[in-house]
């Protein structure tokens, strides 16, 4: 290995160099620079960027500070969105995947259709649904009225309707993505497991409960973490559909960070906020890992 | 029993299909309506009269040059995909096949950033892009997001599964690492490279937050960022907004139609390693 190691050394670094330039410049450096910015009163457009230590963090964590409410309101908005969208995006795509986990004519066509919204950008999805959910002229209210339901719901400017709209649209948009991952996971479950369960006399539900779901645990964990991170990073839907309304109740944490840092140029404050959000998110992801691992370990014993 | 289940399955599948297709269809139909018919209730499913005036109005408008945005998006997404595939393939080959000091550390470092929420990069990257004088240029949306940890990880897993025999026999014939990479590994990896290129193109085409803030002139925007500009300029002109949304959807939907298998397989495979 050491002789080979020496021979590949220079060549290997040449292969790596182009990627490492990008990775160093736009991933590693920003992570460090973000911390540095968060310790300053940093305005991109001003020459002076005075060092303020942990003041930006203190402001965000001190209930008496003016920065406290806007930030935590946005964290709350992100929390509400995540709380409702993640479970739906774990369970519904799983159900869809199970319905599709058999050989039948048209299967690939259906799968392709369900995945299609995901290839559209959030701007397209947002603009389209803002139109459909318009209180006065939107098709959704119009059809609700046609079947005798309330036809004047303010989907984009009242609570809780706005959350239903934002979560619903996000489920519509990304359901297919999670379903495709589940379908691949279902196909990887060895047939013998099902046959063994059938020979033992297990019914349809017992098989789902004792064979399918446990075998799917790693895939479910992956889906959970990916969905959690995506939901906690929600921005475009509320930027386009509700613009944070009503008041700023649907302004998410990312929305707050982008506005504070890239529009008002309080970049130190925004960088500190993004570190708090990131730490919270990573802690949550670790909890998810721990939960799945604990349940997996229990099953082995 | 079996028959009833079959019917039930198709009923569910068809209902879901309608749920996914009808909003898109309505968007398309509305883009060919007059501004009046676009906001008419109850909604109509066929434009009367059929008109392309929404498209004519927005494609070359001074404040919302949608055609220009289309080409900006096309250039940016293509360049970004090319950059991702090139840099990721080179790096992934080193990590899959070459032996060198620090390999494990580098790979671990790259993989660990897969789980770093992208929000952490937004503020500092704005500062970096600003220092490079890339703000309000397409470079700002082509280069920074090309540092794809997913791309390296995805291709490394693919290269590592390739049979070593071909590479070894080429080596015995005197081929060096570059020749092996270009003549053997890359040709064998066409599906994986195509998948990565496609996913990168789609991601870049659809990126929203970053272009909204780093591109500000009407003529530098991409379609996604532009849609939000179009919306602020014409908040109730739904005929125009739907026409813009259609223009922003058609290329990706076409690409998806042609290469659906690669997209779906790429996504399925990304989940299996979780």
Major sheet description of chain A? none
Give the helix proportion of chain B (percent range): over 70%
Total strands of chain A? 0
pLDDT below 50 for ≥5 consecutive residues: which ranges of chain A? 1-5, 297-301
CATH superfamily membership of the largest domain in chain A:
MetI-like
**CATH superfamily placement of chain B:** MetI-like
Q: Most extensive interface, residues per chain?
A: A-B, 100 and 99 residues
Could you say what the CATH architecture of the largest domain in chain A is?
Orthogonal Bundle
Structural write-up:
The complex is a heterodimer of chains A (301) and B (274). By secondary structure, chain A is an all-alpha fold. Chain A folds into 2 domains: 1-38, no CATH class; 55-300, MetI-like (MetI-like fold), CATH 1.10.3720.10. In chain A, 73% of the residues lie in helices and 0% in strands. In chain A, helix 1 packs across helix 13 (267-300), helix 10 (217-232) packs antiparallel against helix 13 (267-300) and helix 12 (253-262) runs antiparallel to helix 13. Chain B has a single domain (31-272), classed as MetI-like fold (Orthogonal Bundle). Chain B has 14 helices and no strands. Chain B has helices at residues 2-30, 35-38, 53-59, 66-97, 103-112, 119-131, 139-142, 149-161, 164-172, 177-188, 190-206, 209-214, 223-233, 238-272. The longest helix of chain B has 35 residues, at 238-272. The interface between A and B is large, with 100 and 99 residues.
Briefly, what is this?
The complex is a heterodimer of chains A (301) and B (274). Helix content of chain A is 73%, strand content 0%.
Helix-strand layout with pairing:
The complex is a heterodimer of chains A (301) and B (274).
Chain A: H1 2-38, H2 55-61, H3 68-100, H4 107-115, H5 122-132, H6 139-146, H7 161-187, H8 191-199, H9 204-215, H10 217-232, H11 236-242, H12 253-262, H13 267-300
Helix pairs in contact in A: 1-13, 2-13, 3-7, 3-10, 3-12, 4-7, 5-11, 7-10, 7-11, 10-13, 12-13
Chain B: H1 2-30, H2 35-38, H3 53-59, H4 66-97, H5 103-112, H6 119-131, H7 139-142, H8 149-161, H9 164-172, H10 177-188, H11 190-206, H12 209-214, H13 223-233, H14 238-272
């Amino acid at each position: 290995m050491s002789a080979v190691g020496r021979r590949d050394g220079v060549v290997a670094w040449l292969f790596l160099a182009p990627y490492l330039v990008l990775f160093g410049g736009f991933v590693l450096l920003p992570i460090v620079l973000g911390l540095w910015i968060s310790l300053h009163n940093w305005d991109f457009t001003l020459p002076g960027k005075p060092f303020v230590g942990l003041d930006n963090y203190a402001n965000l964590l001190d209930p008496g500070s003016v920065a406290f409410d806007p930030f935590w309101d946005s964290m709350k908005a992100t929390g509400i969105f995540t709380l409702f969208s993640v479970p739906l995006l774990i369970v519904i795509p799983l159900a869809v995947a199970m319905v599709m986990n058999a050989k039948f004519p048209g299967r690939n066509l259906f799968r392709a259709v369900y995945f299609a919204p995901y290839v559209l950008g959030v701007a397209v999805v947002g603009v389209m649904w803002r139109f459909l959910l318009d209180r006065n002229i939107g098709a959704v209210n119009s059809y609700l009225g046609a079947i005798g339901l309330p036809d004047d719901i303010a989907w984009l400017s009242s609570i809780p309707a706005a959350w239903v709209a934002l979560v619903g649209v996000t489920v519509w948009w990304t359901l297919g993505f999670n379903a495709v991952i589940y379908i691949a996971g279902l196909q990887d479950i060895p047939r013998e497991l099902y046959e063994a369960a059938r020979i033992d006399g297990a019914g349809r539900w017992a098989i789902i409960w004792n064979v399918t779901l446990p075998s799917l645990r790693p895939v479910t964990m992956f889906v959970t973490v990916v969905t959690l991170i995506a939901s906690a990073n929600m921005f475009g839907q509320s930027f386009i559909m509700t613009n944070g309304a009503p008041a700023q109740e649907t302004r998410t944490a990312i929305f707050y960070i982008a506005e504070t840092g890239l529009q008002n140029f309080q970049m130190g404050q925004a960088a500190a906020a993004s570190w708090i959000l990131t730490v919270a998110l990573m802690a949550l992801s670790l909890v998810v890992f721990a939960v799945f691992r604990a349940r997996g370990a229990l099953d082995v014993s | 029993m079996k028959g009833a289940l079959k019917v039930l399955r198709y009923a569910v599948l068809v209902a879901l299909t309608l749920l996914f297709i009808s909003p898109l269809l309505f968007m398309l139909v509305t883009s060919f309506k007059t501004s009046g018919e676009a906001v008419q209730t109850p909604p109509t499913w066929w434009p009367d009269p059929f008109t392309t005036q929404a498209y004519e109005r927005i494609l070359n408008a001074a404040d919302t040059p949608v055609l220009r945005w289309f080409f900006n998006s096309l250039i940016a997404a293509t360049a970004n995909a090319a950059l991702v595939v090139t840099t990721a393939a080179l790096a992934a080959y080193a990590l899959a096949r070459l032996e060198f000091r620090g390999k494990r550390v580098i790979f671990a470092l790259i993989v660990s950033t897969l789980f770093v929420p992208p929000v952490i990069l937004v503020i500092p990257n704005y500062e970096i892009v600003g220092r490079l004088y890339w703000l309000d240029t397409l470079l700002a949306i082509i280069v920074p997001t090309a540092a794809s940890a997913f791309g390296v990880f995805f291709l490394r897993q693919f290269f590592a599964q390739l049979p070593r025999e071909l590479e070894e026999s080429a080596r015995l014939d005197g081929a060096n690492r570059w020749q092996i990479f270009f003549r053997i590994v890359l040709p064998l990896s066409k599906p994986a490279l195509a998948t990565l290129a496609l996913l990168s193109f789609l991601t870049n085409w659809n990126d929203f937050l970053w272009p909204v803030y780093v591109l500000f002139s009407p003529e530098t925007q991409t379609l996604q960022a532009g849609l939000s500009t179009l919306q602020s300029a014409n908040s109730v002109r739904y005929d125009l907004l739907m026409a813009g949304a259609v223009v922003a959807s058609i290329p990706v939907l076409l690409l998806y139609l042609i290469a659906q298998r690669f997209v779906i397989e790429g996504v399925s495979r990304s989940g299996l390693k979780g």
